[in-house]
Amino acid sequence: MTANGTHSKRQFGEKIYYVISSAIIGIALIICAVVVSNTAMKVKSLGQSISVTGAAFHRITSNYGIWSGTISVTGPTLSGAYALVSRDMQTTKDFLNESGYPDSLLKTGVVRIRHIEKRNAQTGKYVLTQSVTVSVDDVTRIASLANDAGKLIELGIEFI
Q1: How many CA atoms lie within 13 A of 21 on its CB side?
Q2: Is the pLDDT of residue 82 over 90?
Q3: CA–CA dist 115, 74 (Å, integer)
Q4: Distance of CA 77 to the CA centre of its chain
Q5: CA 31 to mean position of chain CA atoms
Q6: Dihedral of CA 74/79/84/85: which sign?
Q7: Phi and psi torsions of 126, nearest 5°
Q8: Residue 76 · residue 59 · CB < 8 Å
Q9: Strand pairing of 112-116 and 125-136?
């Protein structure tokens, strides 16, 4: 204050500066809060969660079953391993046909090849795998097939 009790222009300018600075900081905080809350709402609405409503009063039983497995063979040569996987797939198809599943219900996958090399290139081996899948609308038959699949192992087929 000056001697007559009035504020100097300098003091008045400093007060305005603090008021304007505080207002800018307040507005910036409000804008940040809006941005953060909108982002949180967008993330939540991206389908990242599952919402279930309703109730079931009766036991629900599936009406469609899928049984699948993979044949795996190992051989010192690619052609030898391929012959083994082809033989095992035919044996598996025969087993499934005898169990009442015609070829039209069977789906076989591609033959996958993995070459495993040892330090000495002559001791490498090939691991070939091929999948087979049975899909039917009789779940009890699929359950029975799953129980009988151990017979494939008894036949010497590495079935996983």
Answers
A1: 6
A2: yes
A3: 10
A4: 34
A5: 38
A6: positive
A7: -115, 135
A8: no
A9: antiparallel
Contact 74, 126 (CB under 8 A): yes
From residue 75, alpha-carbon distances to 37, 39, 99, 109, 157 in Å are 60, 56, 29, 20, 14
- Answer whether 0.70 is exceeded by the pTM: no
What are the structure tokens assigned to 156, written together?
Answer: 């010497």
In angstroms, how far is CA 47 from the centroid of its own chain?
16
pLDDT in tens, 6-59: 556 667 667 787 888 888 888 888 888 887 777 766 665 555 455 556 666 777
Cα 85 to chain centroid distance, Å, stands at 28
φ, ψ dihedrals at 117, nearest 5°: -100, 140
Tell me what percent of the residues of the chain surpass a pLDDT of 90. 16
Instruction: Read off the pLDDT of residues 45-73 as tens digits, 9 standing for 90 and up.
Output: 555 455 556 666 777 667 778 888 899 99
